[in-house]
């Protein structure tokens, strides 16, 4: 997914940008100690500690240790943890004190359990049986289920109060941030909240045909760089927080993590039976699991499986920094499953009713701060095997008109259980943080970097995009561009935009404008009118670029070969018809005014050749993306596609002669298929298929020109060793494929596995040709007697390039070595190239 997600990226960039800001805290009272198990004496991790009657609390670390620093005090300190009895200890009113708490287990242990197995730990037999019966417990096997969902997301900047070497203090930015209010983490250190949200929704899922739907009823969000909580509500609801450990892989942070209850359980994991205890009224086996190789991207943790039905009751799974994943110190998922009554079955079914996700980022340097993200999702009023009619599930993600709810009284009644006092304070503190002038400025910088537009305050206008503001090329010289668009503050129905550009060399103004109107939001339907007059170049049309904004901006630099001026008019209607289908119908009128020697033969008896033309075409485009979710961001709308479903786009263009001065009658057909799928432990494969056919006789600028790449960086949807406008075809089939082996190879090499490199293999192939009739349209000279530039078409041999590369170099860079195997004698081409790309990659 390459689309810009404004508020989601704002949250991520704020966290990453604030990783380098040290903050200090002023305290009055300090309580420290350790929480231990009364039976074993071992530390109890993540126990809750709070001062009775006060809004101050913390949690113990993985060893049971805690430190609580606060200006508030009370008469007692309360300790609680899942599976243990609550206990209170008296607080002495002194500045520093130590309290070591001992908690008694509330679980009921059996007298004795003997398990006999032939070879190996008996945990393997338990896991094998649980997997054999997973059809009885897998929620995806139910006819349908639904529930009310409450989700909460918090993001903090932490670890900025660490002592530095030689007693040095933080820099000026650190001193500035030290004045911000903070919340104390599990070790009594301050953590600054930068984003907090709550969402209340209804979630529905059906098995056959597979359908999901989420109605977001209420939401509130606050954070640095967040102007509208609508996107946050859609991205933090239940639709994106589904973690089913009965599936083969858990999708998290765009990674495929093998489940300990999946098909690869015995290949990736090793298991150990620890105990048999009572959890939630069920006698359960306690089974520990961990990856066979610590560097594998896999979970370690504990699963509790009931002894009677062999179903998952509870699981605590984590991934630490040893695994091949970037910027993360630890990922932890805690999940509780409960039996749910079902009148259609004799036995109870089981669903996850509580999921907690913690993501703790890795500090880039020893003195740099980190970031912490916590997500909490709870389900209630669960109903199973009551499917709704198919059309009920459209659209899959629906945001209520009055979704924004900021009343604390409402959320107090909706929360499934009381929040920790620190979490309650987070909603107040984050508003204070975001209104600090420096943080407000930081939020604006993040938005400008991620989105490319700068909001102009009360005018309800955005200026941009930043990437298109300047360019330099041989035709225009210095190109200056200013663009404006309205935002949701102006209207949520009307969307206006436009730009004005000027070239210092050609001394010519260019312009563009658009008016869009949202006719309906269910189904989402929009109509629009566009008009522009600007310079273009053959081979880099918007259809070829495929929404790659960075590459599109780059193509306006340097030497523009075969440039032309184009007047463009477009009227369109786009509607989301449901089931992942989006239909677009448009009427387009375009002129072609070449700035290079060009001509084509005509059928006009008085004029043998012509150098300009105009086309009028009716376009029908159908996009089928099963499983995708449409996200609304202010007045932008984009798709978040599923990982395992192919996306089909079919386009038909009908050229109409003598309609709005159109010069040609023609037909164009094209089909694009994009797909990504997992190949087990071997990694993930992505491929794209393009096919098209133009059965008409028309000038070559109207034929298909595969996208080349003459830059030093790699472009995903291009042929990276092909020049711009190197080939022209009127019938073609192309395949672009990439397989990422992830850490399959490098994780097994001791010398470099700590680098967390990932190996990739790529291959692109294009077959096609041009009819004799289209080739015959090119005359020897134009009307001025200048030689007319022709084009090259593919012969029987396909164009082929293959490559291999290393990803995740310094956690950011990717380097590809690419070989061109065919058409190696073409002029001014490269048969071998090194392409570099960079992005924040987990």
TrEMBL record:
GO terms, molecular function: carboxypeptidase activity
Species annotation: Larkinella punicea
Signal peptide limits: none
Taxonomic path: Bacteria, Pseudomonadati, Bacteroidota, Cytophagia, Cytophagales
Keyword Kinase found: no
InterPro entries (UniProt xref): CarboxyPept-like_regulatory, DUF5686
Organism domain of life: Bacteria
Name of protein: Carboxypeptidase-like regulatory domain-containing protein
SUPFAM superfamilies linked: Carboxypeptidase regulatory domain-like (SSF49464)
Assigned keywords, A-Z: Carboxypeptidase, Hydrolase, Protease
Annotated transmembrane regions: none
Hydrolase among keywords: yes
């Amino acid at each position: 997914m390459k689309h810009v997600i404004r508020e989601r990226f704002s949250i991520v960039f704020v966290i990453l940008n604030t990783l380098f800001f040290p903050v200090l805290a002023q305290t009055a009272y300090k309580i420290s100690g350790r929480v231990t198990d009364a039976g074993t004496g071992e530390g109890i991790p993540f126990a809750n500690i709070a001062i009775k009657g006060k809004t101050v609390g913390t949690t113990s670390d993985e060893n049971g240790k805690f430190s609580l620093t606060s200006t508030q005090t009370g008469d007692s300190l309360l300790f609680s943890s899942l599976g243990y009895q609550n206990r209170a200890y008296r607080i002495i009113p002194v500045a520093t004190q130590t309290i070591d708490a001992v908690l008694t287990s509330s679980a009921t242990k059996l007298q004795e359990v003997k398990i006999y197995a032939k070879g190996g730990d008996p945990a393997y037999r338990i896991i094998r049986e649980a997997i054999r019966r997973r059809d009885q417990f897998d929620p995806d096997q139910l006819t349908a289920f639904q529930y009310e969902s409450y989700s909460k997301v918090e993001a903090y900047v932490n670890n900025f109060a660490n002592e530095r070497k030689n007693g040095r203090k933080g820099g000026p930015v650190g001193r500035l941030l030290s004045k911000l209010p903070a919340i104390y983490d599990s070790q009594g250190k301050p953590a600054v909240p930068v984003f907090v949200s709550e969402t209340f929704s209804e979630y529905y899922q059906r098995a056959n045909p597979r359908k999901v739907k989420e109605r977001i009823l209420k939401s509130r969000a606050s954070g640095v760089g967040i102007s509208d909580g609508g996107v946050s509500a859609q991205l933090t609801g239940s639709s994106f927080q589904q973690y089913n450990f009965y599936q083969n892989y858990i999708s998290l942070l765009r990674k495929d993590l093998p489940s300990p209850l999946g098909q690869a359980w015995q290949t990736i994991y090793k298991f150990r039976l620890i105990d048999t205890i009572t959890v939630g009224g069920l006698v359960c086996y306690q089974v520990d699991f961990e990856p066979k190789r610590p560097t594998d991207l896999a979970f370690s943790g504990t699963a509790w499986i009931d002894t009677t039905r062999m179903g998952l009751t509870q699981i605590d799974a984590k991934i630490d920094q040893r695994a091949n994943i970037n910027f993360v110190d630890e990922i932890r998922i805690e999940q509780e499953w409960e039996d749910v009554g079902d009148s259609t079955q004799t036995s109870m079914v089981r669903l996850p009713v509580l999921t907690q996700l913690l993501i703790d980022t890795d500090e880039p340097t020893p003195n740099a701060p980190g970031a912490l993200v916590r997500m909490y999702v709870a389900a209630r009023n669960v109903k199973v095997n009551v499917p709704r009619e198919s059309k009920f599930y459209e659209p899959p993600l629906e945001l209520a008109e009055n979704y924004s709810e900021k009343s604390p009284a409402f959320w107090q009644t909706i929360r499934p259980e009381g929040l920790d006092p620190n979490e309650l304070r987070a909603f107040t503190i984050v508003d204070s943080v975001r209104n600090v002038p420096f943080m407000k400025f930081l939020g604006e910088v993040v938005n400008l970097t991620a989105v490319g537009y700068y909001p102009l305050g009360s005018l309800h206008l955005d200026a941009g995009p930043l990437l298109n503001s300047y360019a330099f090329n041989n035709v225009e010289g210095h190109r200056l561009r200013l663009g404006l668009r309205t935002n949701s503050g102006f209207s949520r129905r009307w969307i206006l935009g436009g730009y004005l550009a000027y070239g210092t060399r050609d001394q010519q103004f260019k312009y563009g404008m658009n008016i869009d109107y949202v006719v309906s939001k269910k189904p989402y339907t929009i109509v629009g009118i566009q008009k522009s007059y600007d310079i273009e170049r053959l081979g880099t049309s918007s259809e070829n670029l495929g929404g790659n904004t960075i590459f599109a901006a780059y193509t306006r630099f340097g030497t523009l070969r075969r440039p032309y001026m184009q007047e463009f008019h477009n009227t369109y209607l786009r509607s989301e018809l449901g089931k992942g289908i989006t239909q677009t119908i448009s009427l387009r009128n375009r002129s072609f005014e070449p700035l290079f020697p060009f001509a084509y033969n005509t059928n006009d008896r008085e004029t043998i050749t012509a150098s300009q033309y105009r086309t009028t075409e009716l376009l029908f485009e159908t996009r089928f993306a099963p499983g995708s979710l449409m996200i609304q961001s202010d007045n932008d709308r984009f798709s978040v596609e599923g990982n395992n479903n192919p996306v089909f786009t079919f386009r038909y263009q009908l050229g109409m002669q003598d309609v709005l001065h159109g010069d040609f009658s023609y037909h164009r057909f094209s089909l694009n298929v994009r797909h990504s799928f997992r190949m087990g432990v071997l990694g993930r494969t992505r491929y794209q298929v393009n096919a098209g056919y133009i059965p008409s006789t028309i000038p070559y600028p109207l034929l298909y020109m595969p996208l080349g790449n003459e830059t030093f960086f790699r472009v995903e949807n291009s042929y990276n060793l092909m020049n711009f406008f190197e080939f022209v075809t009127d019938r073609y089939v192309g395949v672009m494929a990439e397989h990422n082996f992830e850490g399959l190879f490098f994780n097994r090499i001791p010398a470099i596995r700590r680098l967390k490199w990932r190996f990739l293999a790529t291959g692109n192939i294009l077959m096609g040709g041009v009819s004799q009739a289209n080739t015959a349209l090119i005359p020897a000279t134009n009307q001025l007697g200048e030689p007319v530039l022709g084009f090259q078409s593919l012969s029987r041999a396909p164009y082929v390039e293959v490559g291999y590369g290393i990803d995740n170099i310094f956690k950011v860079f990717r380097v590809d070595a690419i070989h061109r195997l065919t058409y190696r004698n073409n002029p001014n081409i490269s048969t071998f190239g090194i392409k570099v790309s960079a992005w924040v990659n987990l």
